[in-house]
């Protein structure tokens, strides 16, 4: 246990500067110097700064006028009403814009339907005068017939 008591004394000597072999006057001057040379933390790291106003102003002895409070309340109500009117106007404008777009869409769809009906009507009028389209079966028969004709022509040419 005696060793543990000696250790704090050694730690004490390691952590503090000891002025040995110096005069008393030098020791006292050095202590005063080192005690005055304290490093303060930077301004940003301080919680309270002397050059920044930290406190609110103290209220004056004069009571604020009750009329001023009513006036500010009236201004707030007017401002709120104005903002509400602006919001409603924006909603109405937006609704009108969408209604116009829907009306244009309906007009376009009606025009397309009308054009389609006119095209079908014209096709129905011209249908009896159009050539009949051959079906696949008729096309293959015609193709086969032409091949047979070509073979017959070759055979006749080979006989000469």
From TrEMBL:
Listed GO biological process terms: cilium assembly
Stretches assigned to coiled coil: none
Name of a matching Pfam family: HOATZ-like
Domain of life: Eukaryota
Bias-annotated ranges (Basic and acidic residues): 135-144
Membership in a protein family: Belongs to the HOATZ family.
Protein's recorded name: Cilia- and flagella-associated protein HOATZ
Source organism of the structure: Erpetoichthys calabaricus
Organism placement in taxonomy: Eukaryota, Metazoa, Chordata, Craniata, Vertebrata
Gene: hoatz
């Amino acid at each position: 246990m005696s060793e543990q008591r000696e250790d704090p004394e050694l730690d004490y000597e390691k952590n503090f500067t000891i002025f040995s072999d110096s005069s008393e006057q030098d020791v006292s001057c050095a202590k005063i110097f080192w005690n005055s040379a304290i490093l303060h933390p930077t301004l940003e790291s301080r919680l309270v700064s002397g050059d920044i106003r930290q406190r609110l102003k103290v209220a004056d002895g004069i009571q604020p006028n009750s009329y001023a409070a009513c006036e500010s309340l009236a201004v707030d109500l007017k401002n709120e009403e104005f903002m509400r009117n602006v919001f409603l106007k924006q909603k109405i404008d937006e609704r009108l814009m969408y209604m116009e777009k829907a009306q244009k869409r309906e007009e376009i769809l009606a025009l397309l339907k009308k054009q389609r009906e006119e095209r079908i009507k014209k096709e129905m009028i011209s249908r009896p005068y159009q050539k009949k389209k051959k079906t696949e079966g008729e096309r293959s028969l015609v193709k086969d017939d032409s091949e047979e004709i070509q073979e017959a022509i070759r055979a006749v040419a080979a006989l000469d």
